[in-house]
Amino acid sequence: MPVVDVHSHYVPQGWPDLADVCGGSDWPSLRVDSATAATIMLGEREFRPITDACWNADQRLADMAIDGVDVQVVSPTPVFFAYGRTAAQATAVAGIFNDLALEITAQQPDRLIPFCQVPLQDAEAACRELDRSIANGHRGVEIGNHVGDADLDAGGVIEFLQHCAETNVPVFVHPWDMPTSPRLDRWMAQWLVGMPAETHLSILALILGGGFDRLPASLRIAFAHGGGSFAFWLGRADNAWHERGDVVQGLSTAAPSSYIGRFSVDTVVFSDPALRLLVDTLGAENVMMGSDYPYPLGERPAGDVVRRADLTEADRGAILGGNALRFLN
Ligand code: CO
Fold first, then answer.
1. Cα-Cα-Cα-Cα dihedral of 290, 292, 293, 297, to 10°?
2. Ligand 1 (ion): which residues have CB within 5 A?
3. Which position among 11, 44, 88, 113 has the lowest Cβ density within 10 Å, counted as fewest Cβ atoms?
4. For 145-177, what is each residue's pLDDT tens digit?
């Protein structure tokens, strides 16, 4: 059974000046610092230092060999989603990055599995870019967990997810665009607190907003970082659904725990008890190994927490690869 990492990111080495191509200003750019290092810039601000693992397939494959990973899903880095721009701008950016992703994965298309990005603020444009990307070799799509104030239960997002179900394309949901405040701008709190809360909220939105009830059960959708805080607080959500149903139930037809099985999560949680909680709460069949490679908040070696966990060998095999093979079809 191959070992599959469902959560990694790429950044291409170069892309055209997005202000020239798309109009507008303050687009991300890449400051090349050396042959193996660069910095993602947002305007004049340094957003994130990155290494050539982001764009160099040889480096990626060498690290996979070290970590014992056979197959890696290669997804966009969310800072390039551009959901806050016009649909035309986001479509242009998606096209540029999706085509560059295929250049990175072309060397080993059966081991480096490209996931595309789409202009999620416009369902029709998102479906078009999805179809174009899939025709060109992408195997799935990564979406952000919200579009401005619209969560995953918004009409346009549901329309897009229905299209993914109809065309049999797996969806990976990644938190992004976290709320900011002086309290959250310290210690990477947007990543350490904001991201898990964002992901928790987007799963709840699909449940309480009636998203899962409107979507076919055949939709394959997975959430990053163990689904954020969701599994830990599922009991609280269930209790609230029963005790304060007048305000909590929303459009859902059943308690939150009854939607277990409609979605998967990855294993980027780092601790054995956290992985145990995911397996006990969501079922081993709904957990897939992920690493967040090659970023510093990712796990190396990829899959370490799964390999050392107290699991049956059947569950370990499913989490390391079997579930992902189903997810990826
Ligand atoms: Co990530």
1. -130
2. 292
3. 44
4. 999 999 999 999 999 999 999 999 999 999 999
- Structure token digits, residue 78: 């969310």
Beta bridge partners of 72: 5, 112
Q: Which two tokens stand for residue 64?
A: 């996979």
What percentage of the chain exceeds 70 in pLDDT?
100
Mean pLDDT, range 254-280, rounded to an integer: 98
**How far away, in angstroms, is 177 Cα from ligand 1 center?**
13
How far is ligand 1, taken at its centre, from the CA of residue 245, in Å? 34
Q: Which two tokens stand for residue 325?
A: 């093979």
What is the mean predicted confidence (pLDDT) over 83-87?
97
Q: Which residue is associated with the tokens 């789409």?
A: 118
Using alpha carbons only, give the angle 266, 269, 273 rounded to the nearest 5 degrees: 115
The whole-angstrom separation of Cα 295 and Cα 257 is: 32
One of 3.30.200.210, 3.40.47.10, 3.20.20.140, 3.20.20.150 is the CATH number of 4-11+53-327, namely: 3.20.20.140
Q: Ligand 1: distance of its center to the CA of 180 in Å? A: 19
How many Å lie between the centroid of ligand 1 and the Cα of residue 155? 25
Q: How far is the CA of 143 from the centre of ligand 1 (A)?
A: 11
Segment among 41-45, 87-91, 117-121, 273-277 with least mean pLDDT: 41-45
Three-state SS annotation for 61-126: HHHHHHHCCCEEEEECCHHHCCCCCCHHHHHHHHHHHHHHHHHHHCCCCCCEEEEECCCCCCHHHH
CA of 261 to the centre of ligand 1 (A): 22
